[in-house]
């Protein structure tokens, strides 16, 4: 058996972060996206993220760096990655798009290859009901930035098999990450709790009861939140946050998950957080 390798689908913020983590731990990765413009910038973005990870001490400077390969389709990825040890889907939080992609992946990768969906809110079993080999599907909620946050939420769906769970344990070990296994359901644990809190924080600002800075300062100083909920929203990506809140609201009916009008306005205005240079705070050119 050759060197373990990964294929990561999606060259957005999360896909780039996951690919950075994989190559930073010395493993080869094939990064896949249908957007050629994203692929053209992918190698440079991974290099930049690696440099930042080394500066922050979140990835080891010693040891080899894994090879980064680029592919524009599932078939090309299967050819490039040969027998990938893990396939990680990290595209936008849209259940239909994720299901269609997993069908493509299942058609070209060997049966039994673990398929990991990086999702913050969509139940794993919802996807499993639409794709081949549901036993191969497992959820892993990588946090942003993936190379910095050492604990991950692992979601075992009702149809997830032990082989897939074992593969995830091997992946986390190779990446130097700790996984906490939780039950399936909309938002799992982290998003079910955090996203509702961020939504409430945005509503407080919208109602004029406190400024953005004061909300974050109170949550940091009084409750020990490391960055404050609204600065966290900028890190997550406000567009991604609204997508996740929509998933939670549609599947739970919880009014606390109906996206704040302030969040919606920021998405409409293109103020998505750090990745666009402006969200609740200013960050300069992305």
TrEMBL record:
Domain 3-hydroxyacyl-CoA dehydrogenase C-terminal residues, every copy: 187-283
Entry-linked Pfam families: 3HCDH (PF00725), 3HCDH_N (PF02737)
TM helices/strands, residue ranges: 6-24
Metabolic or biological pathway: Lipid metabolism; butanoate metabolism
Keywords linked to the UniProt accession: Membrane, Oxidoreductase, Transmembrane, Transmembrane helix
Alphabetized Gene3D superfamilies for the sequence: N-(1-d-carboxylethyl)-l-norvaline Dehydrogenase, domain 2, NAD(P)-binding Rossmann-like Domain
SUPFAM superfamilies, per the entry: 6-phosphogluconate dehydrogenase C-terminal domain-like, NAD(P)-binding Rossmann-fold domains
Domain 3-hydroxyacyl-CoA dehydrogenase NAD binding, residue spans: 6-184
Domain of life: Bacteria
InterPro entries: 3-OHacyl-CoA_DH, 3-OHacyl-CoA_DH_NAD-bd, 3HC_DH_C, 6-PGluconate_DH-like_C_sf, 6PGD_dom2, NAD(P)-bd_dom_sf
Protein family according to the UniProt entry: Belongs to the 3-hydroxyacyl-CoA dehydrogenase family.
Protein name: 3-hydroxyacyl-CoA dehydrogenase family protein
